[in-house]
Amino acid sequence: MKPLSIYTLFETHKELSLSHRYITNTHIKPLLNTLGPDFTVETIGASVMGDSIYAVKIGNGKKRILMWSQMHGNESTTTKAIFDIFNTLAFGGADVRQIIEDCTLYIIPILNPDGAKAYTRINANAIDLNRDAQLRTQPESQVLRAVFESFKPHFCYNLHGQRTIFSVGRTNKPATVSFLSPAQDSACTVTPNRKIAMEVIGVMDQTLQELIPNQVGVYDDAFNLNCVGDTFQSENVPTMLFEAGHFPDDYARDKTRGYIYTAMIASLLYIAKNDVLGDHYKAYFNIPENGTCFYDIIIRNAKIENINQDIGILYKEVLVDNKVHFSPVIMKIEDLKGSFGHKEIDAAGREVRTEGLKGLCVDSVCSSVLIENNIVSLELE
């Protein structure tokens, strides 16, 4: 399928009840309860706080694919895309039926329901589950490991979200989607199963380049066996890390979900239709590595204590009344040449201060500033 055709499928089958950043078991339970007869829904364990961890199985093919999302509770974009895919597999027609004819998908929509509810990266014991792959001290880690051992996947999709700071290389292009074929040893050897993951990632990159040119990156493959992807890769299962990043003005990540969806469908179709042997892995190395060149806002040429400087601002995500709010925090006051703002304001050498006439301070929340005598809001519109 052509990339635009896949994206059109997304627009047709997008799950409208899921939106913005706060996605929990409360949001997905009604959807799990109404999945059609092609789907099997299982409760595969419980979180630290006793909330259910669900899995969905669909397909009867020989190629087994394991996916898990919201290992980090505040990374929900891929969870939304999963339910868009469920709708597509249920109603999308012959073009996508091959996926469930040739593949069996086993998908955990929310691995860390406590973190999802609290909108935090960590679980209820303050543990990062993506650093618990070896010791498996947490019930959520044990659940994922048990599924890995019983399902015996041929491919793993490790689904995450990334911050707005990431750029494609050192450019002014945001890394809207990023990938990684994790290392499986400290030498970062390009092993046969890494080549298989790289080949599939190369296909996804080629697909996305037609929709978001120059907005796809890859992560550094430094090895850490405590990470789940590195562990599964080290056990010779081709594993792909997905990172849902920033698309201009899309802080709700409802545009990015479409690109994640497109990449996932393209990869599933490729796996369904082909014996992926890793022969075409070299395209992976054409994808630029991620940089960290972005702030959410940069105020350029600001006069502060009679010195012209730039002000770099990042939004801190805060859960208030079950909704994610974006609080502007000053991160740096210095020359930010080589950095980019998703929004840029030129103070043109005029004095910049807070509304209370106080000086600007790093690490302080600042919802608006005065540029000379003009109030400029830093809140999301």
TrEMBL record:
Residues of the Peptidase M14 domain: 18-381
Keyword Disulfide bond carried by entry: no
Domain of life: Bacteria
Essential cofactor(s): Zn(2+)
InterPro entries xrefs: Peptidase_M14 (IPR000834)
GO molecular function: carboxypeptidase activity
Keywords for the protein's UniProt record, in alphabetical order: Carboxypeptidase, Hydrolase, Metalloprotease, Protease, Zinc
PROSITE patterns: PEPTIDASE_M14
Pfam families, alphabetized: Peptidase_M14
Family: Belongs to the peptidase M14 family.
Stated name of the protein: M14 family zinc carboxypeptidase
Organism name: Mariniflexile ostreae
